[in-house]
């Protein structure tokens, strides 16, 4: 690949969560705990997955790191700086296509580069390079409405990376894709991550996806929503679906066990939930 | 496109045929229900008197000025009210009271406020247009997908750029729909506006025809309004294909 490789300097892209918890009031006035106190540290350049059943607060946690919602208590720091709102250092790739349909593919990527104040020609050149990296340079002038789901997410990835984030948060970005497209997206993502070494936090409810991609899988439970166990994955890279071995199976069994132990969403006693 | 056009033409010809058959059958007094041919003759007569085109010009000018004022204000106020929480809260109940008031009910007030000249006509038309465009713009702005805003914010976009490159395009389909509705309403309120003591215009000509019981001339006016409205709507459909092209992909 000829694209510029942006290895952040060592130690850039560190994420630290200290006892972050979030609660909100339901329409009936009952207090609901979206996230029980949770701590988490992501090393610079690491790839971590956040895995759990729906309703366990994994998206809430991601939104808090992105600065979209305020944590009720606890602190979130990126490279030592407390998160107070959205910041271009923290890029987000959304589950639903968040591409702007009124811009072309390259227009979307260029939008992410506004803050660099580049000359027009240079901006276009770099945006094309970003599209090249996701294999869509030939669709640069196509509108998102004319692209397939997988292509849209590739453009979304190119757009997010074009903003040169130090941390990349991904909220079930491939959840809506078919299995085959997903697999090729996994390979694409791992290739890009290998070149850029951005810190990645990948939210998923797919055990295999989490194990395939990450250095570490953080398993969450619902009621209360929090991380109950973090599982290290030391399988050699590059990985693919074809490299499933005994260790992979053992990890998967362990995670399945953890997930089946956590009760599904039920209308219970938030009083107890908040204490631990 | 060609098939659509052919179908539209066939349907129109069918309606005219039925109309003609009923009018020519003698069941109904031709004074009250003229034949298509009589209406055609009335149109030719109006054209020869120079009234057809001058009425058209005057009415179109009124609708255009009213639409321009009403839609400009509507978009501007809509962008403002949706952005300001106080406005949103304070105005919604008030709007529920304003909306059901028909344009024609404003005519007496318009005459007292603005006299019987052009300003009272502009007032009635632009008020009607304004309300529709404002509501649609406000609604469109309030229903922008949060993901668009979040995507923009986490890319470090300035608020000004976000407003012009994200907020406005995201609300644009609603705004354009509001403009389309406003254009239709401009024609609906035109006739009401021309009741404010006009001496020319399609609405005035309809009133005048009533005094002379010229149903053939009334039909000319009604058909004119129908054609103009349909044509205008077509223009807006084409305009929206250009302006919010991504909605039509």
Q: Would you kindly provide a brief summary of this structure?
A:
The complex is a heterodimer of chains A (276) and B (249). With 276 residues, chain A is of the alpha/beta class.
Report on the structure:
The complex is a heterodimer of chains A (about 280) and B (about 250). By secondary structure, chain A is α/β, with parallel strands linked by helices. Chain A has helices spanning about 60-65, 105-110, 120-135, 150-160, 180-195, 205-215, 245-260, 270-275, and strands spanning about 15-25, 30-40, 45-50, 75-80, 80, 90-95, 165-170, 200-205, 215-220, 225-230. A 6-stranded mixed beta sheet of chain A has the order 6-7-8-3-9-10, with helices on both faces. In chain A, strands 2-1-4-5 form a 4-stranded antiparallel beta sheet, covered by helices on one side. In chain A, strand 1 and strand 2 (about 30-40) form a beta hairpin. The longest helix of chain A has 18 residues, at about 180-195. The termini of chain A are far apart. In chain B, about 80% of the residues lie in helices and about 0% in strands. Chain B has 10 helices and no strands. In chain B, helix 3 runs antiparallel to helix 4. The interface between A and B is medium-sized, with 26 and 22 residues.
In the CATH hierarchy, the architecture of chain B is Orthogonal Bundle
Broad structural category of chain A: alpha/beta
Described by the principal axes of the CA atoms, the overall outline of chain A is globular
Tally of distinct domains of chain B: 1
Largest interface: A-B, 26 and 22 residues
Mean pLDDT of chain B: 89
Distance between the termini of chain A: 49 Å
Number of strands of chain A: 10
